[in-house]
Amino acid sequence: MAAALAILDEHGLPDLTMRRLAATLDVQPSALYWHFANKQTLLASIADQIVSRAVPREVRDGDWSSATRAEAEALRDALLTFRDGAEVVSSTLALGLGAGEPQSRLAAAIRRGGFDPQTSEVAAAALLHFVLGHVSHEQQRLQADSLGVVAEGHSADPATAIGGRAAFDFGITLLLTGLELQLLTSTPGGHPTRSLGGTAQ
Amino acid sequence: MAAALAILDEHGLPDLTMRRLAATLDVQPSALYWHFANKQTLLASIADQIVSRAVPREVRDGDWSSATRAEAEALRDALLTFRDGAEVVSSTLALGLGAGEPQSRLAAAIRRGGFDPQTSEVAAAALLHFVLGHVSHEQQRLQADSLGVVAEGHSADPATAIGGRAAFDFGITLLLTGLELQLLTSTPGGHPTRSLGGTAQ
DNA sequence: ACCTGAACACCGTTCAAGT
DNA sequence: ACCTGAACACCGTTCAAGT
After folding, report:
1. What whole-number distance in Å separates Cα of residue B163 and Cα of residue B180?
2. Is A143 on the interface with B (CB under 8 A)?
3. Residue B46 CA to nucleotide C5 C1', Å?
4. What residues of chain A lie within 8 A of the CB of B170, using their CB?
5. Residue B49 is part of a domain; what is its CATH number?
6. Do residues B196 and B132 lie in contact, with contact meaning Cβ atoms separated by under 8 Å?
7. Cα–Cα distances in Å, from A197 out to A118, A194, B169, B173?
8. pLDDT given for residue A13 in this prediction
9. For burial by CB atoms within 10 Å, which of A15, A53, B117, B122 has the most?
């Protein structure tokens, strides 16, 4: 695991191959298959490792909204800790392997706002999709810039500052205020005006 | 292009290799490199092809919010048209190649609400990240289910109906109502309470 | 203009066999 | 319990050469 994380951080996801990992461990590639069933399993473990580094800062007031924001920011920081971190996590999460922790943590924070479990889970998924998409984008831009690959006006023009913390916080704000409004417009104990209707299955 | 799209839709992204594509065209693999510089370029063209199929339904009232929603839904439909469509588009978009169209269309729709260009662009990026993340998730679930791979209680339990149109619409609603609120709380011509501050660069 | 042939430098994974 | 050796079935890409 340590060797794999080192390769990931120093050379990136495309260079994290079973053969290369074996080589740095002075071992035959086949030896890895005693420890991991396959590469996907290995990547899932790495994803868990990265994600477990996400520890939200203590938030003084018990506000659910800032607690959720703290979770999202902790997750972003953790993903930024390792090169290609967001891609590793989102790919293993897409394959349905491990890494259910981030969504659970986000959902738990949201639930403190009084949302029902299903709404909390779906909102958490929305937040997670945004975080992963944003940080993936951010990291790709980082190494594209470091490689000097500009690819037509696509670089860090301040007009479209899609990457960066300000844009991240803005996206989180949109989702959280959207949720807040959800809370106000739904008549408690009555018919919520906008909720996951019976069409969800 | 047609042959590549056919392989993608029938066998999925992992099976869309240069050698396989060449074989279905009764041609040597090296022949493809006269038409495309490399595989990434080919995938970028495919992504454009998929995305160009996104035609939003006509929205009767000129409401910016429903226009934006229509764009997002058209994009989702287009991505769902081809197997692994979301992954193809988000990977090429991550590499900074082509496919700037979806974000532009979303941003244009948002701008009709009176948002400044930068806010519109960043909000469009947030929407796009959500759409791609959601549909990726959805498509992966689709073929995981079709393969009978269940991978511990992870399948289509109605409690966490993350995939599907209802969850999609809910996520879009969160972002759009968040934007609406942004419009109300910012004093026009004054200091917006929540905007992309000077920290953005 | 468009393609072949042949090669280069890789992949992930399996499996009998060793210690 | 943990690893080697050797193989299988692939990859993307380059490049001289053909027509």
Report:
1. 25
2. no
3. 29
4. 119, 122-123, 126, 194-196
5. 1.10.357.10
6. no
7. 11, 8, 11, 13
8. 97
9. B122
Q: What is the pLDDT, as a whole number, of residue B121?
A: 97
CA distances from B120 to A131, A162, B105, B148, B173 (A): 18, 11, 11, 42, 16
- Contact flag B178-A182 (C-beta cutoff 8 Å): no
Q: What is the pLDDT of residues A13-24, one digit of tens each?
A: 999 999 999 999
On the question of pLDDT at B154 being above 60, the answer is no
B135 touches chain A (CB under 8 A): no
Q: Which structural domain, as residue segments, surrounds residue A85?
A: 2-148+157-187+194-198
Q: Where are the beta strands (DSSP E) in A11-134?
A: none
Average of per-residue pLDDT values in chain B? 87
> How many domains does chain B contain in total?
1
Taking the CA of residue B170 and the C1' sugar atom of nucleotide D12, their distance in angstroms comes to: 41
The answer to whether A130 and A175 have CB atoms below 8 angstroms apart is: yes
* Range picked from A178-187, B42-51, B143-152 for highest mean pLDDT: B42-51
- Minimal-distance CA residue of chain A relative to B159: A118
The rounded percent of chain B whose pLDDT value lies above 90 is 71
